[in-house]
Amino acid sequence: MQAEDWRSISKIRLERAVEFYDDAIALYKEGRYRSAASRLYFSVFHAMRAVLALDGIDRKHHSGIISEFRRLYVKTGIFDREVSSIIATMSLMRHDSDYDDYIPIEKEDLDDMFPKVERLLDSVQDYLKPLLYENSDSEQDNGMNMGM
């Protein structure tokens, strides 16, 4: 695949990450905390995939995406170490929300995570924008709207 193809894929994945974040907010406001937790995790997941796409990397399993992202971007200091903790927390919360019948996801569980995930998405956007929109001033000004 050509570098330009990977850039296009990265843009799509970044847009999906923001869309899922917005979906998580809407679900949270409706009191649907399990679904909100799942969408919040997928926001993080697609943000990682957006970054990895620029290196031409994709994996079949979530664990492979997480492992590669941590190895290439957190351990090297490109992203703050707090990102690794956010990924771990959201991964566990998503697992509980999607698969565990007895572990509730409460409003309070998500209250702390929304600002953390928003910071993660902001840092991913800050990292990607110069790489994705280096030749297009009009596209670079298209800020992603995130906020509760």
TL;DR?
By secondary structure, the chain is mainly alpha-helical. The chain is 73% helix and 0% strand.
What percentage of residues falls in helices of 4 or more residues? Answer: over 70%
User: What kind of sheet is the major sheet?
Assistant: none
What is the CATH homologous superfamily assignment?
A: Nucleotidyltransferases  domain 2
Terminus-to-terminus distance: 37 Å
**Which second-level CATH architecture applies?**
Up-down Bundle
Secondary structure tally, helices: 7
Q: What structural class results from the helix and strand content?
A: mainly alpha
Strand segment count: 0
- Provide the gyration radius in Å: 15 Å
The low-pLDDT segments are 137-143
Shape: globular
Mean pLDDT score: 90
Could you name the CATH topology? Answer: Four Helix Bundle (Hemerythrin (Met), subunit A)
Look at the structure and give the CATH class. Answer: Mainly Alpha
Please provide the ordered H/E string of secondary-structure elements: HHHHHHH
Number of domains: 1
Strand content: under 5%
